[in-house]
Amino acid sequence: MGAGTPATAVRRGRRRASGALECEVLAALRRAGTPLTPREVQRELPGALTYCTVVIILRRLHGKRVLTRTPRGRAYAYAAV
Question: Which residues belong to the signal peptide in this entry (predicted)?
C-alpha cells in the first residue's frame, strides 16, 4: 500500500440487502413447520453463514416478537409466530 493509504479490509462478494438475512431465516423456519435450533437453521440456509451469525439473527427476530423460543438441550428451538 502506498503512503497515506489506510489499511482497510475489503470484503469480497455481494452483501445482502438490509433485512434479507432475517427474511431468509424466517422463511426457513416457516418451511420447516417445526421449531429449529440455530444449528438446524444454519443447515437450512444457503451459503456459508457462521453459527454465531445465525444465533444473532434469531435473537433479533425473537426480540422483535416475530419468533417464539423454547429450551431444547443447551440451545433454544425457534419457531415463527
Answer: none
Question: Would you tell me which CATH number, out of the four given (1.10.10.10, 1.20.1250.20, 3.30.365.10, 1.25.40.20), belongs to the domain 20-80?
Answer: 1.10.10.10
Neighbour-count burial of 4, counting CB atoms closer than 10 A to its CB (0-12 exposed, 13-18 middle, 19+ buried): exposed
What pLDDT sits at residue 75?
Answer: 94
Cell numbers for 55:
444465533
User: Is this prediction's pTM over 0.85?
Assistant: no
